[in-house]
Structure formats: structure tokens, C-alpha cells
Design brief:
The structure is a single chain. This protein is mainly α and 436 residues long. The protein folds into 3 domains: 1-124, no CATH class; 127-252, no CATH class; 254-334, no CATH class. The protein contains 21 helices and no strands. The longest helix is centred in the N-terminal third of the chain and has 22 residues, at 50-71.
Length: 436
């Protein structure tokens, strides 16, 4: 994907009169269209030619940067990019169909000029692109790949993120991420064709897809990225892809609706996650007037729709917890007893040290700081929280609430040493100063 951050593109010749170009073209457009174009082109070229599909998309973007700078942005930039990619695909098939194999499902129709153009046109139809994006998503979540590689492929292929951006989000080097993505794409290519949603392995693969999207959203909401404690663009992409699942009858299950509800309810709080200086705001200090009430309402509606099945998943319970928070008028009016009960349920469905940590914090809110500290100390497998800054930070908050400022400051200092980005570090250093 071209690096657009340093490029400035204008709408019309008038924008160039002073020698400058207005930054009218957002990177979001390229992210959104990248996955759609790659999906359409992969249907034509075949997954074994994924690199060729990505090259065509890159060419279309570069062409846009050149043409739009002179002629201005068209009324429908997505359609413009689609037309360029479509014409390029036709040229490649006509030129190379005797020397290269394309998608096995389309071999016969691509051989004849009579059927070639209609086949390419169909590949770029909206419903086809949606289906191919779903198939690509399922293919990226191949069980032969580790979870982090699955998420990296989704971000790279379907969301248009470069290796450097993904590496930053997951705290690995660019070289390591490039190797991870390359290995993942080799696994894809070896499959010869994209995953078929009618496959017998559909159910476990759908579970893997939901898990990957859950991890993607969480990385944006409170991840370890050095770029910042909140990466809204990751949350946005996770929601966009989850809506693709909801839009298809095969994947619109109660658990999928619960995952979408969880994302919407948490995304509603994003405007208050950082203060005006870009520093982290803990939930107890959120200005709830900044919460997105439209997203809250949509999240609650999605949660209602998730109740149609007879299985309660971890996504259902997490979404229910998020709903209690989202509907409370203040931290003091929050139904902490219900939240603790939901965390108890979550510990039976999907136990983890992070769930236990959040449960202990809720107990501290319901029963007081002494009970909260006892619950924190009782967490099993604390070794897995050794490098997580918010375990000592939680101890610090509870010690501060019971007046032990010296102990609180020590815990905050431990947490600050573990901070994963500047926003976390500034937040924890402020807590240390507050204890002085």
C-alpha cells in the first residue's frame, strides 16, 4: 500500500493555485478499498497469485495519487479505483492466460473472450466482493497458523495495513512481521483456493475468525502499541469485518452478534479513553457525556439479537458487562454486584489472569479496597501478569483508596517501568505525583 501520510492531494486545479495541495484524500479510503480490491482480484487470479492481486491494487493506488493530484478527486473515488483495477485485470488475463494459471474455478470462462469480460465484471460486483472478503477472512484464519499470524494477515490483506504498522501494534520488529506475513501468505497460496464456507471445517474456522477479530479490536482499544494506548483505526477495522459476518446468513450467529455488541459498546467509550492532552483516562474518570450514545444503542440492540440461541459464550458475558457499564449514569451508580457475578460466570467459561484481574477490580468497587486487594493477591498464575502494567497499577489504585500513599506510589512506579507506550507511562507517572 502506498504511504499516503506524506502525500497531499487536492480536489481541483484551484487547490493548486498557491503551490499547495489540500489533503482531501484520507488514508481511510485506501484502507477500505484495498481489501475490497484484493478480494475481487483474488477471485480472478486465484489465491496462489495473491502477490499479483496486491501489485494491481498498488498500481491503482499509485495511479490515483498521480491523476487525482492533477484532475481532482472524482465524485466516487472507490468506483474510480475499482475501474482501474478491473481494466488492469482484463489486460493481465488477456496477456498471460497462456503462460499463467488463474483461479481454478474460473479457468474455462477466462479462456474465452466471450466470457472473460462478464466474469471479471461479476468478480467486481458488490455481493461477490462481500462473499470473497468473507472467504479471504476465513482463509487467513487457517488453523495451521498461530493466532498472531492470523490477525497479521487480516490486517495486511483485508485492511491494507503495512508490515511496519502491524509490527508496531504488536511490539515486534518490522523484519519479524514481514517474515510472519510472508509465511502466512505461503500457507494461503498452498491452499490453491480460498476457504469455502460450505466446508466441513466451517464451525471451527468461524470460531477462529471471531477470535482474530476480537484480538484485533482489543489491540486497538487497549493494546501494547508503541504508537499509542488507543488505536481507533484498529477498532474500526475490527467492527467493519465483524459487520461482514453479520451480513451473511452463514456467519450471523448469536455469538457473532454478541461479539459485535461487545465491540460497539466498548467503541462508544473511545472518545473518553484519552483526555485532551492525549493521556489515558481510567473508567472512573471518564466524562460520560463524551460517550457515543448512538453506538451504545446499537450495541444494546445487537446484544438483544444475540440472545436468540441457547449457548452463552464468552462474548455474550463480556458484552453484558459492557452493557452494565454503558447504561450506568456514573461510576457510583454502576451495578457492581451484577458485574462481579458476570465475571464469575466468565471465569467458568473462559478463565484467564486478565479476567481474574478485572473481577478483582470490580470486587474492589463493590466491597471496598481491602476486598479488592485480597482478590488481586488470590489470582492464580500471577506469572502471566508479571509484565502487564495494570496489575501493579490496580494494586496502586486500591492502596491509594485506602490511604496508603507510599505503597500506592511504589506500585505505580512498578507499573510505570512496565508501561508499553508514552500514554501509559504519562498516566502512571501522574498517579505517582498524585501520591506525593
Amino acid at each position: 500500500m502506498p504511504d499516503l501520510r506524506g502525500r497531499r492531494i487536492g480536489r481541483s486545479a484551484a487547490d493548486h493555485e498557491d503551490g499547495h495541495v489540500k489533503p482531501e484524500l484520507s488514508e481511510h479510503l485506501f484502507r477500505r478499498e484495498s481489501g475490497r480490491l484484493v478480494a475481487a482480484l483474488t477471485r480472478i487470479f486465484g489465491v496462489h497469485n495473491l502477490a499479483l492481486a496486491e501489485d494491481v491494487v498498488q498500481d491503482a493506488f499509485c495511479r490515483a495519487l498521480e491523476v487525482w493530484k492533477v484532475r481532482g478527486i472524482p465524485d466516487n473515488p472507490g468506483a474510480w479505483l475499482m475501474a482501474v483495477a478491473k481494466h488492469r485485470a482484463l489486460d493481465i488475463v488477456r496477456r498471460e492466460r497462456t503462460a499463467r494459471t488463474f483461479a481454478p474455478e474460473l479457468t474455462r470462462v477466462l479462456e474465452s473472450e466471450w466470457t472473460l469480460a462478464p466474469a471479471v465484471e461479476e468478480a467486481f460486483a458488490g455481493s461477490t466482493i462481500r462473499d470473497e472478503q468473507l472467504r479471504m477472512m476465513f482463509s487467513c484464519c487457517d488453523p495451521r497458523l498461530p493466532e498472531e499470524a492470523q490477525v497479521a494477515l487480516v490486517l495486511n490483506i483485508l485492511c491494507g495495513f503495512g508490515a511496519g504498522e502491524i509490527a508496531s501494534a504488536f511490539l515486534v520488529s518490522r523484519a519479524a512481521m514481514e517474515k510472519r506475513i510472508t509465511r502466512g501468505k505461503k500457507t494461503l497460496a498452498a491452499s490453491t483456493r480460498l476457504f469455502d464456507l460450505a466446508d466441513a471445517e466451517f464451525a471451527p474456522r468461524l470460531s477462529a475468525v471471531r477470535r482474530a477479530l476480537y484480538l484485533l479490536f482489543n489491540e486497538g482499544y487497549h493494546g501494547a502499541s508503541a504508537q499509542g494506548a488507543v488505536r481507533t483505526e484498529l477498532c474500526t477495522e475490527a467492527i467493519r469485518l465483524t459487520l461482514l459476518l453479520i451480513g451473511a446468513s452463514q456467519t450471523a450467529s448469536p455469538e457473532t452478534f454478541a461479539l459485535a455488541a461487545l465491540m460497539y459498546l466498548n467503541a462508544a467509550k473511545l472518545p473518553a479513553r484519552l483526555d485532551t492532552a492525549g493521556d489515558l483516562n481510567p473508567l472512573v474518570e471518564h466524562d460520560r457525556a463524551r460517550w457515543d450514545t448512538r453506538l451504545v444503542q446499537q450495541g444494546l440492540e445487537l446484544l438483544d439479537r444475540s440472545a436468540s440461541g441457547d449457548v452463552i459464550s464468552a462474548f455474550h458475558v463480556e458484552a453484558a458487562i459492557a452493557a452494565v457499564h454503558a447504561t450506568a449514569q456514573s461510576i457510583d451508580e454502576t451495578d457492581w454486584n451484577t458485574i462481579v457475578g458476570l465475571y464469575d460466570r466468565l471465569m467458568t467459561i473462559a478463565p484467564s489472569p486478565i479476567v481474574a484481574l478485572n473481577r478483582a477490580i470490580a470486587i474492589g468497587q463493590r466491597d471496598g479496597p481491602d476486598a479488592g486487594i485480597d482478590a488481586l493477591r488470590a489470582i492464580g498464575d500471577l506469572e502471566r501478569l508479571r509484565s502487564y502494567p495494570f496489575y501493579p497499577a490496580a494494586l496502586g489504585e486500591l492502596e491509594r483508596r485506602r490511604g496508603n500513599l507510599g505503597a500506592a506510589s511504589g506500585h505505580f512506579a512498578t507499573a510505570a517501568a512496565l508501561a508499553r507506550n508514552d500514554a501509559e507511562r504519562r498516566f502512571l507517572e501522574k498517579r505517582i505525583r498524585d501520591c506525593a
